[in-house]
Amino acid sequence: MAPRAVVVGPPGAGKTTIGELLADRLRVPFRDTDADVVEREGRAIADIFTADGEPAFRKLEEEAVETALREHDGVLALGGGAVLSERTRANLAGHAVVFLSVGVAEGARRTGLSVARPLLAGVNPRATFKALLDERLPVYRSVAAVEVATDELSPAEVVDRVVDELAN
Ligand SMILES: Nc1ncnc2c1ncn2[C@@H]1O[C@H](COP(=O)(O)OP(=O)(O)OP(=O)(O)O)[C@@H](O)[C@H]1O
Ligand SMILES: O=C(O)C1=C[C@@H](O)[C@@H](O)[C@H](O)C1
Ligand SMILES: [Mg+2]
């Protein structure tokens, strides 16, 4: 059993939004490792970061990804930083990984109104977002079979593009 698609990308790329729509389109269930961690821990991600620190969250996330890759045969969205784990990257080998990309301006705009993203909660979210993209872009690309730039597309258009690309 393997997910039909595993969605990766930075915060605000639309992993949850597009993942849910893609699952509807494919008529399969949707699962999100951020939600799995929250459910297992019974606390919000921001609270885990604050109380236990990022490394503790990454460990929980690694476990959540490994379990979901084993159990889930629908669409799976990973947390934005999940690919930073070498173990997770190894676990993703052979899977249909979709990288949703977003530029700094649009990514900061989409995430700017939320306080639920602890990594972007600093004084200059735009600069933080740029640094995050600079670090992660090659990592997302290294695990992905398909890349879709989402800046100029509506969620429905992104899903169309992902379905097309996965069929090729
Ligand atoms: N293609 C799009 N066009 C316009 N808005 C979008 C698009 N994709 C997502 N959004 C909006 O951007 C915001 C972030 O989307 P979403 O929560 O799906 O991102 P995410 O990648 O799951 O982020 P996180 O890593 O924080 O979980 C939401 O308000 C969503 O409605
Ligand atoms: O990009 C990240 O590092 C994160 C993205 C979110 O999905 C959450 O997993 C968490 O807020 C960390
Ligand atoms: Mg999400």
From TrEMBL:
InterPro entries noted in UniProt: P-loop_NTPase, Shikimate/glucono_kinase, Shikimate_kinase/TSH1, Shikimate_kinase_CS
Catalysed reaction, written as an equation: shikimate + ATP = 3-phosphoshikimate + ADP + H(+)
Binding locations of Mg(2+): 16
Pfam families membership: SKI
Top-rank lineage group of the source organism: Bacteria
Top-level EC class: transferase
Enzyme Commission number(s) from the entry: 2.7.1.71
Pathway the protein acts in: Metabolic intermediate biosynthesis; chorismate biosynthesis; chorismate from D-erythrose 4-phosphate and phosphoenolpyruvate: step 5/7
CDD domains: SK
Ligand binding (substrate): 34, 58, 80, 136
Residues noted as binding ATP in the record, renumbered to the chain: 12-17, 117
An annotated Gene Ontology molecular function: shikimate kinase activity
Compartments it resides in: Cytoplasm
UniProt remark on cofactor binding: Binds 1 Mg(2+) ion per subunit.
Cofactor(s) needed by this chain: Mg(2+)
Keyword annotations: Amino-acid biosynthesis, Aromatic amino acid biosynthesis, ATP-binding, Cytoplasm, Kinase, Magnesium, Metal-binding, Nucleotide-binding, Transferase
Signal peptide limits: none
HAMAP family xref list: Shikimate_kinase
The protein's role, per its UniProt record: Catalyzes the specific phosphorylation of the 3-hydroxyl group of shikimic acid using ATP as a cosubstrate.
Similarity comment text for this entry: Belongs to the shikimate kinase family.
Subunit structure comment from the entry: Monomer.
The protein's name in its UniProt record: Shikimate kinase
Species, as recorded: Saccharopolyspora griseoalba
Record gene name: aroK
